């Protein structure tokens, strides 16, 4: 892994067209991984570029099988 594979949260927000808080929220929820560089969290560029939003709303509950 090269450091060129990592970008700041602010750069990720600019790429996605959202604010930095939205990127921080994705990190907190485990949707984007981080790596600390000098104590500052950076995200993986490939994950930011390939990120697919999920449908809004609650997650569906697991169905119990009958039988």
Please describe what this structure looks like.
This protein has 67 residues and is of the alpha+beta class. The protein has one domain (3-49). It has helices at 9-16, 20-28, 45-49; strands spanning 6-8, 34-37, 40-44. It has a three-stranded antiparallel beta sheet.
Structure characteristics:
alpha+beta, elongated, 67 residues, 3-stranded antiparallel β-sheet, single chain, 18% strand
Q: What's a concise summary of this model?
A:
By secondary structure, the protein is of the alpha+beta class. The chain has helices at residues 9-16, 20-28, 45-49, and strands at residues 6-8, 34-37, 40-44.
What's the helical proportion of residues? 25-40%
How much of the residues is beta strand, in percent?
15-25%
Please work out how many helical segments DSSP would assign: 3
- What would you call the structural class? alpha+beta
Give the SSE string: EHHEEH
Query: Termini distance?
Result: 49 Å
List how many beta strands DSSP finds. Answer: 3
Number of domains: 1
Which word captures the global form? elongated
Sheet with the most strands?
A: 3 strands, antiparallel
Radius of gyration: 15 Å
Average pLDDT, all residues: 90
* Unreliable stretches: none
Q: Strand sequence of the main sheet, in spatial order?
A: 1-3-2
């Amino acid at each position: 892994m090269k450091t060129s594979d990592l970008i700041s949260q602010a750069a990720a927000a600019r790429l996605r067209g959202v604010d930095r808080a939205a990127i921080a929220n994705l990190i907190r929820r485990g949707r984007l991984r981080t790596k600390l560089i000098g104590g500052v969290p950076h995200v993986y560029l490939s994950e930011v570029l390939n990120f697919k939003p999920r449908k809004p709303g609650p997650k569906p509950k697991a169905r119990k099988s009958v039988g």
